[in-house]
Amino acid sequence: MPRTLYTAEQIRARVVELATSLATRFPADDTPHFVAVLNGGFMFLADLVRAMTRPVTIDFVRMTSYGSATTTSGSPRIVHGPGTDLRDRHVVIVEDIVDTGLTLQALRRHLLAARPGSLSTVVLLDKPGRRRVTVPVDLVGFRIPDEFVVGYGLDCDEAHRNLPYLGVVAPPS
Question: What is the mean pLDDT of residues 124-132?
């Protein structure tokens, strides 16, 4: 079993704090549109929107840069989504983890081309020790060291996504 990094209770408390902060960032009469990165971000998105005190809409993107490897190819690309017109909307990228920053950089470029009213980012995990490009991140759940993290939607070759906590495993060779 993975070594526990953050318990389910710690994650739940931090997600509520992030939702509280997000709820105050937009005009009261606007509905922010959350765009989550699949597959890893689905649990974070679900808990985040349930903790919101205002209406939101959601959408998904699927990006690829890892495949079954544990290191990025360096060329992330969008393979699906979003399916909503984002022009003049307040868009929030919901990402499970930012390490190299390449995926987030590519997604930001793509979404900015859709001319949203605003674009912000909330990430559950920030791994600054692996950063290859500078990307803006507005809200961070937890900053973590350069370890291979699984659980709460994150996987190791599709294993461990179902864990209710975040844990550390040795990456496959």
Answer: 95
